[in-house]
Design goal:
homodimer, FAD/NAD(P)-binding domain, five-stranded parallel beta sheet, 10 helices, oxidoreductase (chains A, B)
Chain lengths: 428, 428
């Protein structure tokens, strides 16, 4: 590989010194896939620039704990610059506006374009409202740190409002989507309603605070084994979650959710946890797209028409055969993208990506989780819950976050009724 | 004392049941003074309603650690409803708009008026810009949680911006005010510039990132013993803080600070730490006001014209003889206000408040602080720093916050260069 063929004058002010003769790898996105790619590129003779629109990486599997006030936003985010410094990469903050595969440049909303020799597209996907009217306007996703904080802030300020005015003695939360995020939110909110609410809001009636989980298909947690799905549903019901299966959402209104069968569910807050799709912007990049707008790549994660472009994580799909949009596939794809680049740089043949399924987990509440370990046991209850805790704590970046999340979850689940909640500000 | 003379119909929806025959004490403000008052009223046969515009109490002495990314906002704030639940009080969220001493009512921005038998005004003060042109528009105070977050977010996003665009290789922060807050911010920022910045922003030149502390008088930390003041100044200079004494600020501009002598200091961010004054709104309450708009009370903290109204904390001044606007005077006044109410309820004479000065402390940076202990030693260096740490951790509310702050400060000061910073979002 050659170095940048034509160092562009407008790039002179950036951190990326074009005097470096090594091939330049630009990695878009500081999520699971992007970070895994940067880390795995360490042994390869390339210079790496990591790009993200935030200056931190978010540990998405614990966002619902931020939304429900057990953890602080800083406990599950990790500074992208610290990560870059420790892996020998550069960091550039900015949102990707355009990719020009012909010129091999990436344009950001701020600063000069980046020229690449290899590009790893790993900047993920965004909430998919599936065109449901009112969803984008009135429902709250929990996909970014700011969104999790918005849920938290909206929830406390609404409860404080009705407690102050006496306008209502209760409120309903409708969660749309019976995947892991929906189940975790529903279980946690129901538990808070049962334990913390009576202590903190004696003005309100817990019986009038409803937590409803709406799922379009006939089951929650579809990828899990039937035994685990049944356990999860039973645990949710035991906590007082109203489960509505085979219920498609027709419209989201400011204070209700309208189902396809005509039922109107009262909803002072609607949480949207149904799925993700590629950003609209991807269309303009001139790359082949499959279901949900995901970029279609070959088995070595390269785009066939542009072999210097690789895709990893939720935004990519191999031969249009989608992997689950979870941390493990993203991490493994990120690692494989680095492997492919290393092979190309060394003039060796690339290899085909094989996903090693390690299983999947979801928490319902205190002492209650399901863990579907691939080629291993199907765990429920306390054992699954402790496994979930350990796996997530180890997967976090940085010892600070590991320690803070361990303690934050310990305070949540040990203190229960008297536990301290991280209280939000008014929505800005 | 009698119960509410005329239960008002619009109050029926609130948390405050007017059927309770005990005298109703309304405490405005969940700061040091208000919380101390609520806590100290526990043995008295009254019902208590705590009011605050936020649903949490903020531990202001550590806000600068939030502004500089060592602590999360939730680590130094404590849910007001949790506090109320544990002390047998009710909580009402709302901002005080009017106090009507004749009708004995408090109006809030949300919900029905509160009727009181006794009122403890402890809702503090607000940033005082002393009429300096541009200060309110362009300078950043650090007096609330939202303000501390704004400083953090603005700082990271500005550095990321210049790193991305290459427009500048440095930036200047001017801190106005040489009291404890100003000294702590200047020392902490200079230390971050020296240790973390080179690691995280290799694009920038630490020598071009200036930290300037501007003070109008000829000394920093005016209430401290001369030996301690000299130590603090020397420690600031050793960390590379540019100290500008006897420098009054004439104007704050978007990118600079103009001094009275005509000097224009470059300032990509100006932090305002000069002092506080009562909110403008207090004027409309018809209560006697002294210097800085503080409400003038008698020795037992009652307003002479309205003995059922008591004042505690920064917003009050006894016989126009001001106490320092710090945590200790506020806490002791809050306790004394409760004592006065207990005496009146019991038909006993009230006593005069006497401030027990325990001394004062300020931190410059890692292993460096000054502690001016009243009737005790004057400490500098590591010993003062450990004392500061212990005193502040014990003063926090709740074990969760104690543990999290201990660890947050430990990670900051032990990890130093490689320490994780809580990275901000873009300013909203």
């Amino acid at each position: 590989m050659t170095a940048d063929p034509s160092p562009r004058p407008q790039a002179s002010g950036t951190s990326i010194t074009n005097a470096d003769p090594r091939p330049h790898v630009v990695v878009l996105g500081a999520g699971f896939a992007g970070l895994a790619a940067v880390r795995s590129l360490r042994g390869t003779d390339v210079r790496v620039t990591l790009v993200d629109r935030h200056s931190y990486s978010t540990f998405q599997p614990l966002l619902y704990q931020v939304a429900t006030g057990a953890l602080n936003p800083g406990d599950i985010t990790y500074g992208a610059r610290g990560f870059a410094a420790h892996t020998g990469a550069s960091f550039r903050k900015g949102e990707v506006t355009t990719i020009d595969p012909e010129a091999r440049t990436v344009s950001l909303d701020v600063g000069p374009d980046l020229h690449y020799d290899y590009l790893v597209i790993a900047n993920g996907v965004t909430t998919n409202y599936f065109g449901v009217p009112g969803a984008a306007e009135h429902a709250f996703p929990i996909y970014t740190r700011a969104e999790a904080l918005a849920v938290r802030d909206r929830m406390t300020s609404y409860l404080d409002h009705i407690a102050a005015t006496g306008e209502a003695r209760g409120a309903s939360v409708v969660i749309v989507g019976g995947g892991a995020t929906g189940v975790e939110m529903a279980g946690t909110l129901a538990e808070l309603r049962n334990t913390v609410l009576p202590d903190r809001y004696p003005e309100l009636d817990p019986a009038e605070v409803n937590v409803v989980l709406v799922e379009m298909t006939d089951k929650i947690l579809p990828p899990f084994a039937p035994k685990l799905r049944e356990y999860a549903a039973q645990q949710l019901r035991r906590r007082g979650v109203e489960l509505r299966l085979e219920s498609a959402v027709k419209e989201v209104r400011p204070d209700s959710v309208l189902l396809a069968d005509g039922t109107e569910l009262s909803a002072q807050m609607t949480i949207w946890a149904t799925g993700v799709a590629a950003h609209e912007r991807v269309k303009s990049w001139g790359l082949p797209q499959g279901r949900g707008g995901r970029i279609v790549v070959g088995g070595d994660l390269r785009v066939p028409e542009h072999p210097e472009i690789l895709v990893a994580g939720d935004i990519g799909v191999i031969d249009d055969d989608p992997l689950p949009q979870l941390a493990q596939p993203a991490i493994q794809m990120g690692q494989h993208a680095a492997r492919t680049i290393a092979a190309v740089v060394a003039g060796e043949p690339t290899t085909r990506f094989r996903y090693k399924d390690k299983g999947t987990m979801a928490t319902i509440g205190r002492g209650s989780a399901v863990a579907d370990i691939a080629h291993g046991p199907k765990l429920v209850g306390v054992l699954a819950w402790l496994t979930w805790m350990l796996v997530h704590i180890f997967a976090l970046l940085g010892n600070r976050n590991r320690v803070f999340v361990t303690l934050g979850l310990a305070f949540r689940y040990l203190a229960q009724r008297r536990g301290q909640i991280v209280v939000g500000d008014d929505p800005g």
